[in-house]
Design brief:
Elements lengths: L1 H5 L4 H14 L10 H14 L7 E4 L7 E6 L8 E6 L18 E3 L2 E3 L7 H16 L8 E6 L9 H8 L1 H4 L3 E4 L4 E5 L2 E11 L1 E10 L3 E2 L8 H13 L9 H11 L4 H10 L6 H8 L2 H7 L2 E9 L5 E2 L2 E10 L5 H12 L5 E5 L12 H14 L5 E6 L5 H6 L4 E3 L4 E3 L11 E3 H19 L1
Parallel strand pairs: 3-6, 3-7, 7-17, 8-18, 9-16
Antiparallel strand pairs: 1-2, 2-6, 4-5, 5-19, 8-9, 10-14, 10-15, 11-13, 12-14
Helix pairs in contact: 2-4, 4-15, 8-9, 9-10, 13-15
């Protein structure tokens, strides 16, 4: 009790807020920011709290690309638990925002600033709770590792991939809780469910290009690079990849069928039948968030063509971005694109590298502790395991054989998602609720 009295609960919210503010006001964009500065600032907090210097590492593969790794020593009763977040944020122009995006402000019940949703609120929560547990004298049964990394949002020096390739021992763990995924969904001020991510799609873009000799625009022909590309994209717009459920998405729709009501609930139940009814699939597919969980998706995101207004186009290009299910492969998706575009004049080139991220089979013991923590704070709020439709650094860990679960306690309004957007914000109450939730989780799993 003396240790707890030395670190009163009433002090924790203000302490976490100070960390949150410091992180927001350090620009960590790829273009002009400095991830190393943020990592060093947080490392200083751990040193002040009494963590041994040997257990605090700031490692950078390049200037401004620092990664912070902290080890909270336990009793060695098992392999470590890794807690993961990223310190970098997407670009934010002052001209696009109502105020300086790198100024932390509290207004009308919200915290504002670039990274409040994605994901410096969660970073602050992880840091504050590691420090709180240390100050309380908590000794975990096994080591707890905190990794806050660079270049999750883009850039050439992804921190998790680099650490796995060069310093795997520092982050190797039995499993990982990734704070950049999962979290709560609310609508109209009411909590709908707390999501736990156990799988995610793979990001892969393809460049489409049509070349042509061109000529004078006064002598047009049907052999036009822009027309060829446009016709192919029109076919792609009408195409849907087949529905493929895995163990995680099957569980997701099964659980959501008990949360939703009316036709939507009925359609989710029908979806789980073999074979599912086509009309139920069509209705669910009309909702983007459900459609993205049902199938691989490919969508045109960039387009350019021609070189002069009075000349026939010599080239036309487009970028198609695909989000690939764990059960599909980039090679299969590329073959499907060729079939759908149905024009040998459209050259298809994969962009970058892509590796499919396997499913992390949900661990009943972990789910039980997460459910207990959620029930204590939000009685009656369902806990739903699902698949992320975007991509996080969790994919590198899953590929490396470390099961990874997206876990967070911050609830976001489904109709007000501002991550990567202007005037990004998070509810003040939701931030502090998330702080409490993760403290309960970390303490329970660390016993």
């Amino acid at each position: 009790m003396a240790l707890l009295a030395a670190w009163p609960l009433c002090a924790q919210p203000q302490f976490a807020r100070e960390i949150f503010k410091e992180l927001i006001e350090i620009n960590t964009t790829d273009s002009t920011g400095d991830n190393t500065r943020a990592a060093e600032a947080m490392a200083a907090r751990f040193r002040t709290a009494g963590f041994p210097a040997s257990d605090i590492q700031v490692l950078a593969p390049a200037p401004r690309k620092g990664n912070l790794i902290v080890r909270f020593r336990g009793q060695g009763a098992g392999r470590p638990i890794l807690y993961l977040g990223h310190l970098d944020v997407v670009e934010a122009k002052r001209s696009d925002w109502s105020f300086d995006p790198f100024e932390f402000r509290e207004q009308d019940g919200y915290f504002y600033g670039r990274g409040t949703q994605d994901m410096k609120a969660d970073d602050a929560i992880l840091i504050a709770n590691f420090l709180r547990l240390k100050r309380e004298g908590f000794i975990p049964a096994r080591d707890l590792i905190l990794a806050l990394t660079a270049d999750e949002e883009g850039g050439s020096f992804n921190g998790v991939e680099w650490l796995l390739n060069n310093h795997r021992g520092l982050i190797d763990a039995e499993y990982c809780l990734n704070a950049d995924a999962g979290g709560g969904t609310s609508r109209d001020g009411r909590r709908q469910y707390l999501g736990i991510q156990a799988a995610e799609k793979t990001f892969r873009s393809f460049k489409l290009e049509v070349s042509n000799p061109g000529g004078h625009s006064s002598l047009p022909t049907k052999d036009n690079a822009i027309y060829h590309l446009a016709e192919g994209l029109a076919r792609l717009a009408m195409f849907d990849f087949p529905v493929r459920l895995n163990e995680v998405t099957h569980s997701y729709f099964e659980r959501m069928a008990s949360i939703e009501q009316g036709q939507r609930a009925a359609d989710m139940k029908t979806l789980l039948q073999n074979p599912p009814a086509a009309d139920a699939i069509a209705r669910l597919s009309a909702t983007p968030s459900f459609n993205a969980r049902l199938r691989t998706t490919c969508v045109a995101t960039m387009l350019s063509g021609g070189h002069a207004e009075n000349a026939l186009p010599q080239s036309a290009t487009a970028v198609v971005n695909c989000r690939i299910l764990p059960s599909d492969t980039p090679a299969e998706v590329e073959r499907t694109l060729r079939e759908v575009l149905a024009n040998p004049q459209i050259k298809i080139s994969p962009m970058g590298q892509a590796s499919v991220s396997p499913v992390s089979t949900p661990d009943p013991k972990i789910l039980a502790e997460l459910t207990t923590a959620a029930a204590a704070l939000w009685p009656g709020t369902p806990v739903v395991t699902g698949m992320g439709t975007g991509a996080t650094d969790g994919k590198y860990l899953r590929i490396a054989g470390i099961p990874t679960y997206g876990v967070g306690g911050i609830f976001t309004d489904a109709d007000d998602v501002r991550a990567h957007g202007r005037d990004e914000r998070v509810l003040v109450k939701s931030f502090f609720d998330g702080l409490d939730f993760m403290y309960r989780v970390m303490r329970a799993l660390g016993k």
